[in-house]
Predict the 3D structure of the following.
Amino acid sequence: MEFMNTEQIAGLYWFRHDLRLHDQPSLAATAEKCDTLLLVYVIDPTWFEPTPFNTKSIGKHRQQFLYETLQCLNDNLHTKGQLLHVVVGDPIKELSKLCNEHNITVLGYGDHQGYNERQQIVDIREAIPSLELVSAPNAGLFTPDSLPFLIEEMPDSFTPFRKKVEKSSYPESPVGITRALPPPPQISQTDWEGLPLHHGAHSAFIGGENAALKQLQFYLFDSELVSVYKETRNGLEGWDYSSKFSAWLANGSLSPKHIYAELKRYEREHVKNDSTYWLYFELLWREFFYWQQTKHGIKWFKQTGIKDKIPQHTHNATLVIQWQQGKTNNPYVNACMAQLNATGYMSNRGRQWVASYFVNELAQDWRYGAAYFEQQLIDYDVGANWGNWQYLAGVGSDPRGQRQFNLTKQAQMYDPQGEFLRLWGEVNVA
């Protein structure tokens, strides 16, 4: 007589930068292997501790955006008979504890190319070597296999990267909404009000997958603003001059592959022009920095950057604080920093201005600027943020070397009537 194996397989899925249910191949693969599934997000207390640059890893604006995102994910999981278990502590210790308590044998996660994110997976393997790990790429347009080069051989400049990719690679189709999930084990509900995340303030950015998909529908199909994106993208203030997708892309509540698929649908059903291409062009910039950080590892955070070049910079704490608070000698830098401090957001044009001023006019260590952006930005992304700061500082992927902006000329081009300066010029929000 044959006996059926009735032992249940308990799994855990670790949400990190993939806080959504659409385009979730790693979650789907994990769910298929398990009879019960614990869904976990870990808030690391070190995020709120001082960094070497006298900042924190996450400020109040992104804290609120994250809080809203987690709540949205939990609400969406409830419709599938599941819940999100949010814990506070060292990620490896907390996951190890949960695995022991619930007899977890399968752990799933989404691949992410950040240096610290990859190190986390090394650490969990060492902590619980018996775990079966299940993963899939879910943070980029491409996978290592779909890129036209080995990661270690990828170009260090954007243009050759883009040309190679556009010639021979296409983003894979996103997978649909995760529909079926195993039930959770017996576990307490998350104490949402007890989480150490700032929330309750007003923001134009609403966190979560639902708001992300609503913005995608609005920008492409309801408003068709994407059809004029190339003409409007250098705006300084307002909602409609750019897609605003970056915030939801950064924490993974919106999939880049889903954006691309919807963009292609828009081009088929409405119009295909330079502006619709330019949105893909910007996604490719994000993708470039995403894979560059894999190639260069810890150099992503080094003062010498990926070029191993020592910048001619100093550190003056007073100048750094004046820049942070928007109290420099340049009114446009001050206006941009006031906008950032008040809202957690700044236009791409403004980011280039204030970074150029920081490294060229003030001659400060670029890492202090990058770390402050990490703290303040709602849409902070480790690849794009540190990659762009290196680029401006002349130690990154810019083939021209250190790039300096004439801010007086730039202001005449992009704020000829002085509207942005009047709006934010007299505001100082530290």
